[in-house]
Amino acid sequence: MSTFSLLQISLDQSIDRNSLEDASDVIPSLSRADCAHLQRDLFGIVVSDLPLGEALAFQAELLRRGFPTEVVADDLLPVLHEPFTIQRIDIQDGALQFSDSMGRLQRRSKDDLVFIAGGFLTQKKMVSDIVLGPHRASSREWESRLEREHHYETVPEFRLDFFFWNEPNRLRASLSSASVVFFRGRLMQLKDTALLIGAMLDFQELLPAERLGEGLKRIETKTTYPSLHSYEEEIRWHFHQLQAHS
Q1: Distances from the Cα of 49 to the Cαs of 73, 132, 244, in angstroms?
Q2: Residue 155 pLDDT
């Protein structure tokens, strides 16, 4: 059975959680509790994997609350390519130059460039620590032993994704506490906000506004994506808009 998504008409739209919860009451596929995640990740695609009847009913309820949407078949929405990781970026003589941590070089024409996404995001990652934990040595005695304790941490990150017409179609650079990126030969770390903003301004000059992600365009507000999912859903929304208006 075909499934459908609801897409925002504009990324400037917003809706409060109570209104979203009330609208969701008309369809069985969503619970009111689901709406917390929907609102948090509201970056273009409201919800996916709905039967057509439920998608249309949800669309009507959202419209009643001043939040118009577009219903699109899931199999018509773009699927993002797997990324090829890069570490160095340069702009020279009308071309982009990239290399990875192994020094492998790629030179790509600006004419081959389709879209650039970027911005600050947070991810939950599983980490582990070695701790001393109590263990029963006998019926009367306890002893301490080293053991591994797992938990989730929220990890900040800055990402850049370059999309091209030709393969490899997607090149990604990532800055975090454990990774760096070189731009125009200069080392950039996650804490280097001024350098990052300077790089983002340079990338803005490569393409028209409709082919740039919101995280690159709204530098003054420092758009932060609450998850990798929301960051990538926005890219898919942009690609759908580009296809619809091409």
Answers
A1: 9, 45, 21
A2: 84
Look at residue 218 and tell me whether its pLDDT is greater than 90: no
How long a stretch of residues is the chain?
246
Distance CA 245, CA 240 (A): 9
Name residue, tokens 């020279």: 92
* Cis amide bond preceding 168, omega within 30: yes
Instruction: Quote the pLDDT of residue 113.
Output: 97
DSSP string, 27-69: -TT--TTHHHHHHHT-SSEEEEEE-HHHHHHHHHHHHHTT--E
What tens digit of pLDDT does each residue of 83-100 get? 999 999 999 888 999 999
Q: Do 240 and 116 meet the contact criterion of CB atoms below 8 Å apart? A: no
Report the amino acid identity of residue 30: L
Rg for the chain (alpha carbons), in Å? Answer: 22
Sorted by where each starts, the structural domains of the chain and their CATH numbers stand as: 4-76 (3.30.1390), 84-126+154-244 (no CATH)
Phi, psi of 173 (to 5 degrees): -120, 145
Asked if 39 and 33 count as a contact pair (C-beta separation under 8 A), the reply is no
